[in-house]
Amino acid sequence: MNVLEIRNLTKKFDDFVAVDNMSLSVSEGEIFGFLGANGAGKSTTISMVASLLRTTKGEILLLGKNIASHGKFAKSNIGIVPQDIAIYENMTAYENVSFFAGLYGLRGALLKERTIEALEFVGLSDKGKAYPSTFSGGMKRRLNIACAIAHRPKLIIMDEPTVGIDPQSRNYILNSVRKLNEMGCTIIYTSHYMEEVEEICTRIAIVDHGKIIAEGTKEQLKAIITDAKDIWIGVKSERPSAIDNLKQIPGVISVRLEDNVVKIASKGEINNLNQIVQQLIKDQIEIRSVEEQAPNLETVFLTLTGRNLRD
Amino acid sequence: MNILIIALKEIKTTLRDKRTFTFMLLFPIILMLILGTALSNAFSSTTPVGDLKLLYKSDIADKQLTQFWQSFSQAIEKEGIVSVPIEKGVDGKQEISANHYAAYAEVGDQGIAYYGSSKKTIESNILQGMLTAFADKYNLAAAAMATDPSLAEGIIRDANDSAAKYVKETSLIADKQPGSIDYYAMAMTTMIALYASISGTLLFWVEKKRNTIVRMIASPVSKGEIFAGKVIGCTVINILLVFAVMLVSKFVFQADWGNHLGIVLVVLVTEVMLAVSLGLVLSYWKGDSARSIVMIFTQISSFIGGAYFPLGNSGESFMGFISDLSPLRWANQALTKIIYNGDLGAAWPAIGLNVGIAAACLFIAVVSMRKKEAF
Ligand SMILES: Nc1ncnc2c1ncn2[C@@H]1O[C@H](COP(=O)(O)OP(=O)(O)OP(=O)(O)O)[C@@H](O)[C@H]1O
Ligand SMILES: [Mg+2]
């Protein structure tokens, strides 16, 4: 069964179309990845699913019921992890989870049990009495998740739950997403981090300018662009002007620099490796390694949207 | 139940905020103490009972009624009230506006008409208290005189016997003069009630800033319940804070709150309701700048409404008009009449204005809330 079905969904802010006639469906048990650059319309879509924004057009069905007419039902079955951390600094971690779970109708002993359970789930059980103002960024993000799961929703929507945190917390969160999924939750996961999405998502939609421009498993997505390749060149020093020069070479789709590796996405059929290497030498950049790779998701994204996932 | 959960959260988090305590409790109590002590001299010299001056105009043709009036004015003179007959050609009402007398009474065969000074509020209230009791009997007698003189005689005889008594009774109340601590206990309490408007502006602002409003709206709790829960919680906690200030002034500073605490509390409760709704509607209307607007509004209202100096005995008429616009002035006037004059009816204008404006503000807030996508 489809946990979520979106049909021809449009959202306009005045004249600006943030979500443009979008349709998609998420079936039970999926970890559905929502990929898109800044301003692509991910949060806007999510907000409409969570009844935070009104739709301009189209309909949204949760577990087969239209959320416009079954608002309470839909809301009860959704847990939302907002992109911007939404917790009270002047309430303890326990009180935060318990308050929000209370809004979903949990009371008494059950409320207590589920609150403890949610805190345990995100690894904060020993911090129940502590105030979030004393928490690290990662701990706040984890509490942000705990507040969304205590009422055991069928669908959990996570809007960039790992922004700006340490690798340890990130791994913790990714593992808990998997665990939630194993427990039967369907998950919609939004992220700027390609590796995360590639690692945990069973299916991925690439969003650009409010539209879904590609959708499928990672393998399916990678198969879309058989005509692209990745060239990774390890360099000793980096210089932005050199990168601009590389972009002028025929066939090059995009160039980005990560940890002293120049990552170039290029059209597959054009042999431009020589030109690229020569340009780098001309710009007096010392080359340490050259690698040609099969296209990864990042390349897929770049090729389809012409944009980097992260600015 | 959802409303209760949200209201309780509101109360709990407000109580945890140290700034709440400093601002809503410590600040008024300290001011009360400072102003009450520093200005105690000013108070005892400006409002002694001896200053109670009543101007009257007597057009009584009937002998019995004349006697009746005279016995009354003698009785009140024993209580230290000077009653002065008006000179020919002088306009009594003008004398009142010119602040020469606390009250003016026109006594005739038809009855008594009473004019109180709007500036010498305290004195005028005391005089009014005495006169109304007398005037009730007098007017009755006057009416009877026209139709059935023998009945009138009976009324006057009965009244004359008790005249001294009820003048004594009201004058006991008249002896109750607000000392400086009494005045500032009241003025600071009404001031702090008005400061509840600041929490009104913050009510949804904080929730938006913390982004927690997103979770609230995403939950199956309706917008109406969220709104009600938050408004109720905020009002209740502010009422508790105002009561706390009042109780400290009553039991620690021994301030006089009169014998009608119930109605005093009702006036204060409605004032908090007014303040919270005013802040709330401003936050919808003016967004982030609502808080500064409310700060300025409350401070000006406090200043012109008598929070720092009593207005009863001061001021020109322009100042009087301006200060009437301050919700504090309504509250202070009502409370003065209740506490020092036992005039419970004086609560109604203040309660009416407070509740009326609060209801209008809440209505506008609800309408704006429904229009907005979120809050
Ligand atoms: N309330 C609003 N009013 C006007 N425009 C808005 C509003 N909310 C979002 N937008 C615009 O809609 C577009 C989509 O925004 P959205 O937040 O959905 O993007 P996103 O994909 O979540 O981006 P990010 O990765 O930065 O979170 C953006 O251009 C944004 O400026
Ligand atoms: Mg977003």
UniProtKB/TrEMBL annotation, chain A:
PROSITE patterns attached to this UniProt entry: ABC_TRANSPORTER_1, ABC_TRANSPORTER_2
InterPro entries membership: AAA+_ATPase, ABC_transporter-like_ATP-bd, ABC_transporter-like_CS, DrrA1/2-like_C, P-loop_NTPase
Keywords: ATP-binding, Nucleotide-binding, Transport
Claim: Manganese is one of the keywords in the record: no
Source organism, top-level taxon: Bacteria
GO molecular function: ATP binding; ATP hydrolysis activity
Boundaries of every ABC transporter domain copy: 4-234
A Pfam family this chain is assigned to: DrrA1-3_C
Keyword hit for Membrane: no
SUPFAM superfamilies attached to this UniProt entry: P-loop containing nucleoside triphosphate hydrolases
Protein name: ABC transporter ATP-binding protein
TrEMBL record, chain B:
Keyword Transmembrane helix among UniProt keywords: yes
Record's subcellular location: Membrane
Keywords: Membrane, Transmembrane, Transmembrane helix
Statement: the UniProt record of this protein carries the keyword Transmembrane helix: yes
Main location: membrane
GO CC, alphabetical: membrane
Membrane topology: Multi-pass membrane protein
Domain ABC-2 type transporter transmembrane, first and last residues per copy: 18-366
Pfam families noted in UniProt: ABC2_membrane_3
GO molecular function list: ABC-type transporter activity
Transmembrane segments: 21-43, 183-206, 227-249, 261-285, 292-311, 346-367
Protein name from the UniProt record: ABC transporter permease
Taxonomic source organism: Cohnella endophytica
Lineage: Bacteria, Bacillati, Bacillota, Bacilli, Bacillales
